[in-house]
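Quick one, tokens below:
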């Protein structure tokens, strides 16, 4: 795709209706003598104004398309691949099962295979887990060379696999591991990468992956395509998709790659210690079926005590808005939202949280949302199944009493 280099107003088409002014998220358009005028110091060439114009008066100028752009043998790329992230406990990360579920659907639409790429030390036994959850093939590179997690080494092994077997799509969890690993692979393969997708679909004819993710601070959902390059790569947050179910007795192919076939590069990095981010927290929010979250409305660190009581009573975990985290009332690992974690518990109770879009994007797929807020017009009520208007310090103690 050629690069957008500017927005232009076709003055003869502009009738001064002004619809483009509110459409611009950066307030870069004004009216002058009944014709739209763009402030090029502010314009980011996002293109939002183009769609708002009914009179073809706003156009996007593109750079002339470079000649040798894209992957020349695009058609030879096939299959959907999932990166088999392994946890420090030596299990497949839960997000892998979620991606196997989505990957299976994409592969079925595209009428191709679903594969897992598994690289590590002592990981071969995990291959069958992936097959019983929908993978047709598992490519395994099992060697002490891959002990621990050195991104460059794993990226090198994945590059070898991708160049040899040519997957059309590679999906990874947007976990700490995935985020650190996969951009290195995208650069090695000279292809695009869309981070933090919340929805995926595929064009059955072209194989173009429709990668949807929040943009402009979560105010719009953008669907991103990578039509010129293969493989197409995306990361997806944990809990966005449901896990693939287990099909006992399902069979598939395990392709074991000789690690000696992969040229090892020199690295100056070594793992000295692994630290568990959730240490000190009884239950991590991403694993919890019930989350009691607090925002600025809890008033201070002591305000969270009552939320921890309720979480203990219900067997849940405590989450927080960024306002509460930024104030230092609770650890960042508890933050829910765009710059925190995406959660989808069975029950999410939001206490004293207004419901900013950056918070909602991290919790709105919860099965049941209960919102407690003093302000009846708080936007959190827009996504709540049950809304309780009132003071959380009256309502939460009442809930605790009832739960006895
Ligand atoms: C790039 C970017 C990324 C961001 N990422 C995140 C993110 O990941 N997660 C996130 O949460 N935010 C994020 N934010 C911040 C977000 O925009 C909001 O500022 C934040 O979510 C507000 O937190 P809050 O709802 O706790 O606070 P407020 O918006 O101040 O809301 C407090 C609410 O508490 C209610 N209240 C007060 N006292 C009580 C009481 N006693 N009982 C009941 N209700 C009461 C009030 O009526 C109010 O609605 C991000 C912002 C940006 C720009």
């Amino acid at each position: 795709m050629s690069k957008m280099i500017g927005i232009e107003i076709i003055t003869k088409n502009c009738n001064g209706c002004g619809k483009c002014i509110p459409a611009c998220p950066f307030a870069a358009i004004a009216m002058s003598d009944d014709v739209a005028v763009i402030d090029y110091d502010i314009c980011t060439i996002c293109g939002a104004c183009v769609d708002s114009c009914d009179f073809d008066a706003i156009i996007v100028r593109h750079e002339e398309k470079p000649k040798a752009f894209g992957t020349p043998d695009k058609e030879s790329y096939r299959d959907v691949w999932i990166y088999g992230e392994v946890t420090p406990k030596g299990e497949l990360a839960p997000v892998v099962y979620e991606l196997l579920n989505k990957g299976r659907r994409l592969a079925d639409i595209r009428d191709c295979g679903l594969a897992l790429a598994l690289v590590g030390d002592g990981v071969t036994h995990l291959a069958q887990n992936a097959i019983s959850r929908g993978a047709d093939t598992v490519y395994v590179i099992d060697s002490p060379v891959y002990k621990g997690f050195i991104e460059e080494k794993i990226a090198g092994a994945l590059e070898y696999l991708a160049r040899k077997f040519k997957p059309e799509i590679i999906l990874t969890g947007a976990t700490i591991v995935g985020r650190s690993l996969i951009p290195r692979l995208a650069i090695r393969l000279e292809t695009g990468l869309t981070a933090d997708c919340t929805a995926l679909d595929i064009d059955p004819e072209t194989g173009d992956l429709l990668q949807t993710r929040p943009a402009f601070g979560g105010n719009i959902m953008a669907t991103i395509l990578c039509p010129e390059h293969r493989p197409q790569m995306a990361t997806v947050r944990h809990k966005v998709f449901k896990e693939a179910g287990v099909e006992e007795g399902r069979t598939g192919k395990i392709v074991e790659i000789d690690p000696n076939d992969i040229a090892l590069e020199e690295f100056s990095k070594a793992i000295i210690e692994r630290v568990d981010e959730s240490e000190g927290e009884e239950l991590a929010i991403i694993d919890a079926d019930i989350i009691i979250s607090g925002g600025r409305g809890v008033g201070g660190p002591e305000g969270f005590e009552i939320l921890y009581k309720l979480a203990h009573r219900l067997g849940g975990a405590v989450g927080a808005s960024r306002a509460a985290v930024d104030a230092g009332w609770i650890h960042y690992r508890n933050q829910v939202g765009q710059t925190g974690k995406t959660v989808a518990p069975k029950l999410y109770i939001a206490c004293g949280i207004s419901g900013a879009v950056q918070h909602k994007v991290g919790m709105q797929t919860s099965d049941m949302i209960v919102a407690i807020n003093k302000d009846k017009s708080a936007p959190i009520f827009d996504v709540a199944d049950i809304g309780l208007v009132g003071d959380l310090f009256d309502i939460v103690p009442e809930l605790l009493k009832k739960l006895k």
